């Protein structure tokens, strides 16, 4: 079977029809199947092939760099360039080029919001705790027992954490509001309530029962402008892979967006290209093709869903 190739839409001028120079990928549910603790060997090899072909790779994740290294066999270069903490941190060549911490008073208000409700908890990431060899995530507003019941659910996040008493003194980049209830109607109600009470934040859901916290008006889609400007590449030269709500803004900004087969309906609608499931190494297959074709988008039929 021949390879399937897509050209640029007529709306993209000929001078913008350029080869891919940067590949960005969401992590959980996209590059890493849910329930897995690392990327596949094929994915690591595909990233190396991209770099050998002169195409940069970087995560575009809700996680911070230190929290991603375990996924990549502790290869520190995987945190050198990319979009982290859902856009609140942008890095290029090993240096922070943009940081937008969450407003501390607002984070405390979110902790108070969750503490007033029996089925909510707030997760706060502390880099200082991680440097001390402690779990990076602290949970506020719920008992250890109640949160442990949620965290042990295989359908949800399961990460080491401690019960927090005070917010970390450092700048806070990563915060999640967790709905311990598995009831979608309850989750929707909580979302409406927190959006009304804390308008200084935006909330996006990377998965069931979880809301990532962002400064109002800022997201992966706005952050990619910072990275593309710093690298001197156009958004037409960026390929992005994602799967869920926190990827929609970046999919809308980057013309060459891909959604994995296990992605949400909204992500499927937002993406330009559709490929197989995360668990089938679909992202790696496309990255191999990008490297082989020197940045030209040629989607192998084994993973194309278009």
TrEMBL record:
It holds the Pfam family Hydrolase_3. Gene3D superfamilies: 3.30.1240.10, HAD superfamily/HAD-like. One of its GO terms (cellular component) is cytosol. One of its GO terms (molecular function) is magnesium ion binding. It comes from the Bacteria. SUPFAM superfamilies: HAD-like. InterPro entries: HAD-like_sf (IPR036412), HAD-SF_hydro_IIB (IPR006379), HAD_sf (IPR023214). This is HAD family phosphatase. It comes from Olsenella porci.
């Amino acid at each position: 079977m021949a390879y399937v190739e897509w050209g640029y839409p007529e709306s993209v001028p000929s001078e913008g029809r350029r080869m891919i120079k940067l590949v960005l990928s969401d992590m959980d549910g996209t590059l890493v199947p849910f329930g897995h603790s690392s990327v596949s060997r094929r994915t690591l090899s595909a990233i190396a092939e991209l770099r050998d072909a002169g195409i940069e790779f970087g995560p575009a994740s809700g996680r911070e760099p230190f929290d991603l290294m375990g996924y990549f066999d502790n290869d520190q270069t995987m945190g050198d360039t990319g979009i982290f903490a859902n856009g609140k941190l942008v890095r290029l060549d090993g240096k922070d080029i943009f940081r937008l911490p969450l407003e501390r008073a607002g984070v405390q208000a979110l902790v108070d919001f969750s503490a007033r409700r029996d089925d909510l908890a707030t997760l706060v990431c502390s880099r200082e705790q991680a440097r001390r060899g402690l779990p990076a995530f602290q949970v506020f507003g719920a008992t250890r027992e109640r949160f442990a019941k949620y965290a042990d659910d295989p359908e949800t996040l399961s990460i080491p954490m401690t019960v927090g008493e005070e917010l970390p003194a450092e700048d806070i980049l990563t915060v999640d509001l967790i709905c311990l209830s598995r009831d979608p109607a309850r989750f929707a109600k909580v979302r409406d309530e927190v959006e009304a009470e804390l308008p200084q934040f935006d909330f996006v859901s990377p998965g069931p029962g979880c809301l990532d916290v962002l400064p109002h008006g800022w997201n992966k889609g706005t952050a990619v402008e910072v990275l593309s400007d710093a690298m001197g590449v156009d958004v037409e030269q960026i390929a992005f892979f994602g799967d869920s709500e926190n990827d929609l803004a970046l999919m809308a900004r980057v013309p060459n967006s891909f959604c994995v087969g296990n992605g949400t309906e909204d992500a499927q609608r937002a993406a330009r290209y559709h490929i197989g499931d995360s668990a089938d190494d679909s992202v790696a297959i496309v990255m191999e093709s990008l490297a082989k074709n020197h940045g030209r988008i040629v989607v192998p039929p084994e993973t194309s869903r278009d």
